[in-house]
Design goal:
The complex is a heterodimer. Chain A is of the alpha/beta class. Chain A has twelve helices and eleven strands. Chain A is globular, with a radius of gyration of 18 Å. By secondary structure, chain B is mostly helical. The longest helix of chain B is centred in the N-terminal third of the chain and has 16 residues. Classes of the chains: A alpha/beta, B mainly alpha.
Amino acid sequence: MPGSNRGFSAWGSLEGVKAERMDDFRGEAISWQLSAGVIELTLHRGPCNEIGSLSLSELEKFADELEDLSSKAHALIIHSTIKAGFCAGADLRELYHRSQEMKKADAIAGVRDFLERIHRVLNTIDAAPLTTIAAVHGVTFGGGFELALVCDLIIADKMARFCFPELRLGLIPGFGGIPRLKRDLGNGVVRDLLLTGRSFNATRAQAAGLVSQVVGEGEALRAARATAVQLGKFDRQTTVAAKRFIKPIPYEELKQEIDLFCHLFAEPAVEAGLRKFVESTDLQPYLP
Amino acid sequence: MPTEQQTLDEILNLASTHFKVSRDRLKPDEDFFKTLGIDSLQALDLLTRLENHFHVELPDYELQGVTDFRTLAERIQARL
């Protein structure tokens, strides 16, 4: 079926599963829990919370629930229980293998569908009427970095590292990274991260204005919980008004990013880059 | 400013402590991936520890292909 994206749609949409509202959920890739006005969204899929079809489906479920959850909460904390880090980004192995199973046009359509779905999730979290905190440690790369960037605050363990390695694959970040980095940082820092593909440690990220607090090893979640308690002291409507005033969502640039990503994905260099990554036995495959 | 030898010693001590490998087993010119038994993610962890310890930035691409402590010390020394 040329032009169809059924291959990617079969990656695991949870359409039709929506039932009663859930304050707590335990999935294979993510879980969430609402307690004392704070939602904790936990990432817990090895090796390092790579975002593929399973994670996306569960994140969509979370996004569907967020409106209801937000009515009972003043803060959302996103964190990982995986030792290696917060999130290593998109599941490139799944992307490569699924792309190999279908015609090029179908693969590109499938990628666009996947991106539009993850953008809907991330835009929902970005716009959520509560204060959102990413509590990060270790690897916070690519799509994982982009997930952190939708949050209002980033609290980083001193061992956290941030990186956009996409250019080595012949791609740009596809989960909204560039528009959201531009929203938060000077263009020079954005170019440094994007064009060199180098990683920043937490201290450098804080100096750049990306991270609000750097804390000791293993302390990010504790610090995020303490911050969430503080957030609960303020009038909810005022907080929401302030957030909307100072944190516009760059919808037009986000759409352009999807278009550019899909355009680049059609280039032969991407398939070669993905294959090299998937087959790599390099000791330092994360290096651009 | 520390000498390059002092920087090398500090790296070896830090690696020994963190990866729980006897300091006597760590040789400046040997492959630290093999000696420490670490993979790429643990190497990233080592990089972050070194940056935090020496208060320097080490761009990943400057370390591409670096596998021995002595060269690592040279790279750090150049940024002190």
